[in-house]
Design brief:
Layout: H1 21-46, H2 59-83, H3 93-103, H4 106-119, E1 123-129, E2 134-140, E3 152-159, H5 166-169, H6 173-182, H7 186-193
Antiparallel strand pairs: 1-2, 1-3
Helix pairs in contact: 1-2, 4-6
The structure holds fe (ii) ion.
Length: 203
């Protein structure tokens, strides 16, 4: 079992609003590191001794504790790089309808997403919950292995760790958040939202 890092070079050259090639390439390298570590963990787990698992310390136990960090670090970055863009796309009528039904209005979602991102030392993901049949902004903490809402489906992922913006924005995190939110790739997000739950068949 092994994963290959995906290429997101399509974002270079100004195709991710407000993000320079320098910033993006550094972030790609960090993402590739998660994929490498995920593969390393899976390789080690494949041959790990399962005879003495232990909460305090055991090689197998520690690999299992670190697996979600590398796994979510890989997947969240892929979702993020897929769903950022240059601002040339628009939410579909179906996406708008679901966002409005969940947050009251599109602007209310944006305001909540901004507030969550500025609260986060980590990620904010827009998730769909099948039980409530609505979207939530979910603040994912620490090493992106803590706080992810159970049994939801991620529609939008936005990285608010310093490494995602510091080369371009230094401490002006709000400017990064504004640019990334206004530059989202709605073609990708519309397709994700079109797949979910009872809303999938609605126009
Ligand atoms: Fe990141």
């Amino acid at each position: 079992m092994s994963r290959e890092p995906k290429s997101f070079d399509n974002l270079l050259g100004g195709n991710a609003k407000g993000l320079s090639d320098l910033q993006l390439k550094a972030h790609f390298t960090l993402y590739q590191g998660y994929v490498k570590k995920l593969n390393e963990i899976w390789e080690q787990l494949g041959k790990a001794d399962r005879s003495a698992p232990n909460y305090s310390y055991n090689a197998y136990s520690e690999l299992k504790r670190r697996e979600p960090v590398a796994f979510n670090g890989t997947v969240l970055h892929e979702l993020y790089f897929e769903n950022i863009g240059n601002g040339s796309t628009q939410p579909s009528a179906q996406s708008k309808k679901l966002i409005e039904a969940s947050f009251g209005s599109f602007d209310a979602w944006l305001a909540d997403a901004k507030a969550s991102l500025l609260s986060a030392h980590g990620w904010t993901v827009l998730v769909y919950d099948y039980q409530e049949q609505k979207l939530f902004n979910n603040l994912v903490r620490t090493e992106h292995d803590v706080g992810l809402f159970a049994n939801t489906h991620i529609m939008v992922a936005i990285d608010a760790w310093e490494h995602a913006y510091f080369a371009d924005y230094q401490t002006k995190k709000a400017d990064y958040v504004a640019n990334v939110l206004s530059g989202l790739n709605w073609d990708v997000i519309n397709a994700r939202l079109a797949q979910i739950g009872p809303h999938a068949q609605q126009g």
